[in-house]
Automatic annotation (TrEMBL):
Belongs to the AfsR/DnrI/RedD regulatory family. PROSITE patterns: OMPR_PHOB (PS51755). Residues 1-105 bind DNA. Keywords: DNA-binding, Transcription, Transcription regulation, Two-component regulatory system. InterPro entries: AfsR-DnrI-RedD_regulator, BTAD, OmpR/PhoB-type_DNA-bd, P-loop_NTPase, Sig_transdc_resp-reg_C-effctor, TPR-like_helical_dom_sf, WH-like_DNA-bd_sf. This is BTAD domain-containing putative transcriptional regulator. Coiled coil: none annotated. Pfam families: BTAD, Trans_reg_C.
């Protein structure tokens, strides 16, 4: 029996070239889940959740076994074993291993595997020809399947863009227009695809249509994301406006990401003190959109990005600032309020750094120019520079309102984004943006950017377990990713078990680097004494999620006193709240994973010295 499977479109099962009914809806969901993770183990828990979501029956495991049995009859034996009489009845295509199931399939039997093989071989047209529509169409309501389908969709787009780029290089842009336009309409915000579509239209002499494509994209980006087109795409558009000129050359595959710098004579330029845009920045689309809306709005252009240590506040601010060059023609400035030792820098030092970059003959002055004269009153000089200008200032790691107020513009159209763990509720008129942990999918994607997507895709279940152990905060994911990049010989499943074992999380992630512990110690050490010791007492709880009653018991105080202490920790972003609506005793408080690990570590060392009551 020759069986073939298709998931690059609606689910399809062919037996000897003829379509076969895959069975009931539940059995089809199970088959789609296994095929979308072909040759990879899926746990029984993950499959039960895929089949019944949050309401599995008591007989879910037994029912799962029934569906697996039906699929075994449908799909036949494991590839390569059918003709081997020594394999026996155990040579099934769907095997049970370590509490989960694996569907074994050869490259020739599954269209998704054939697609990858042909794409790697450079047969891009053949690879694209295997697609029959949206991957796993009809099963995208199942999260386990939808995540895999989205991964296939992204791979399709990458291969399609490479194919279109090759067609343009061969001068076949006119022939590819219809297909490029159809695909671009399904993915209207994909900038590289839109640039290639515009180039194809230009090759066909349809320059005005190419300009219309850019305008459509510009409006879509502004409406959906609150962002302008990338600088490379904007330059490409400007080149099209010269209608009498030749057709612009086709863009390179990565032109929209890394455009070559154009040579220019030296002239004073708007200062740019931004750190490098974080190369592994992942997710946070809604946060970027909201922050962009605040900073480019008509009023109140002051944003405070808050969240626990390691939430990625600075990365969000810097990433967004890099996208807003066109909105702030007078410069984008970045200043840290604290030195490497964690101590607050004197205000005069902070102002001198800003003024040195903005003064004529400063950072962007001509070679050999003398340094600018130091003003007698840096605060007045800074406000004078801001007056009448439109600049963006990123103020990093504020702890108190008084540290920020002297830097805020009193006049002009400049905007300021402040990153802080406390919420800085005393800053009037500020728009506050709280950064929650990443989603599991975002955290897994961030992990894959460091250790390789192939390694993650081979065992996404273990990858998800690993990132959950870090609390889904970007700092924790980055630490574990760096560790795994070094331990390339360690399977993800084994490493996930190690994190779930007895070894302290901080020991595993930090190794000999004390920096994370230092930053955690700073965040706790700055607290009032009652709150400081409360963190250590809460670290003695068995889990980082707890109710008010459990907190009061751990702090050995009445609920009213416990609430006041917990609210201090909430203000300092050392706790978060889930399910805040309802009665106080039903609220669930949560301590971020890294802080909880630190608190448990410290509490174990100082158990005899932690006071029992708070008054």
């Amino acid at each position: 029996m020759a069986v073939r499977f298709g998931i690059l479109g609606p689910l399809r099962v062919l037996e000897n070239g003829r379509a076969v009914d895959p069975g009931s809806r539940k059995q089809q969901v199970l088959l789609a889940a296994l095929l979308s993770h072909a040759n990879t183990r899926l746990s029984a828990d993950a499959l039960v959740e895929a089949l019944w979501d949050d309401a599995p029956p008591r007989t879910a495991r037994k029912n799962l076994q029934v569906y697996v049995s039906g699929l075994r009859r449908l799909t036949g034996p494991e590839p390569g074993t059918e003709a081997d009489p020594t394999c026996g009845p155990g040579a099934t295509r769907i095997s049970h291993q370590a509490g989960g199931y694996i569907l074994h399939t050869a490259e020739a039997e599954l269209d998704a595997l054939r697609f990858e093989q042909r794409a790697r071989a450079g047969a891009l047209g053949e690879a694209l020809g295997l697609w029959r529509g949206s991957a796993l169409d009809g099963f995208r309501d199942v999260p386990l399947i939808d995540t895999a389908a989205q991964r296939l969709d992204r791979r399709f787009l990458g291969v399609f863009e490479d194919w279109l780029d090759a067609e343009l290089a061969a001068g076949h842009g006119a022939e590819a227009i219809e297909r490029a336009t159809e695909t671009a309409q399904r993915h209207p915000l994909r900038e590289r695809l839109r640039m290639l579509q515009m180039t194809a239209l230009c090759q066909a002499g349809r320059r005005s249509e190419a300009l219309a494509v850019y305008d459509e994209l510009r409006q879509a980006l502004a409406h959906e994301l609150g962002l302008p087109p990338s600088p490379a795409l904007a330059r490409f558009y400007r080149s099209l406006l010269c209608e009498a000129g030749p057709v612009p050359p086709r863009p390179a595959a990565s032109a929209e990401l890394r455009p070559p710098p154009a040579p220019r004579p030296h002239r004073p330029a708007a200062p740019n003190l931004l750190p490098t845009d974080p190369p592994a920045f992942t997710g946070r689309a809604s946060a970027v959109r909201r922050l962009t809306e605040v900073l480019t709005g008509d009023a109140g252009r002051l944003a405070v990005v808050t969240g626990p240590l390691g939430a990625g506040k600075t990365a969000l601010a810097v990433h967004t600032a890099h996208r807003l060059a066109g909105h702030f023609p007078d410069g984008r400035l970045f200043v840290r309020l604290r030195g490497e030792d964690g101590r607050l820098r004197p205000l005069e030092d902070v102002l001198r750094q800003l003024l040195a970059a903005t003064a004529p003959g400063g950072r962007d002055g001509p070679p050999g120019a003398p340094p600018p004269a130091e003003p007698s009153d840096p605060r007045w000089a800074w406000q004078l520079w801001l007056t009448g200008r439109r600049a963006l200032v990123v103020v990093d790691d504020a702890r108190r309102e008084s540290e920020v107020r002297p830097l805020l513009p009193e006049a002009g159209e400049s905007a300021v984004v402040v990153t802080a763990r406390p919420r800085l509720i005393g800053l009037e008129g500020a728009h506050r943006l709280w950064l929650p942990p990443l989603t599991v999918d975002e955290a897994v994607e961030l992990l894959g950017r460091t250790i390789g997507a192939e390694r993650v895709d081979a065992d996404r279940e273990s990858a998800a377990r690993i990132v959950r152990a870090t609390g889904l905060l970007p700092l924790g994911v980055r630490l574990v990713a760096d560790r795994l990049a070094f331990l390339r010989h360690v399977p993800l499943g084994e490493y996930g078990a190690r994190l779930a074992g007895g070894r302290a999380l901080l020991d595993e992630l930090c190794g000999g680097d004390p920096l994370v512990r230092v930053r955690l110690a700073e965040s706790v050490g700055e607290l009032p004494e009652a709150a400081h010791w409360a963190v250590l007492r809460l670290g003695l709880l068995a889990r980082p999620v707890f109710t008010l009653d459990r907190a009061a018991a751990a702090l050995d105080c009445d609920p009213g006193t416990a609430v006041r202490v917990l609210e201090d920790l909430l203000e300092a972003s050392l706790l978060t709240v889930a399910g805040a609506e309802g009665l106080a005793h039903t609220v669930r408080y949560e301590m971020p994973a890294l802080l909880y690990a630190y608190a448990r570590e410290r509490a174990a060392r100082t158990a005899d010295r932690v006071p029992a009551r708070h008054h």
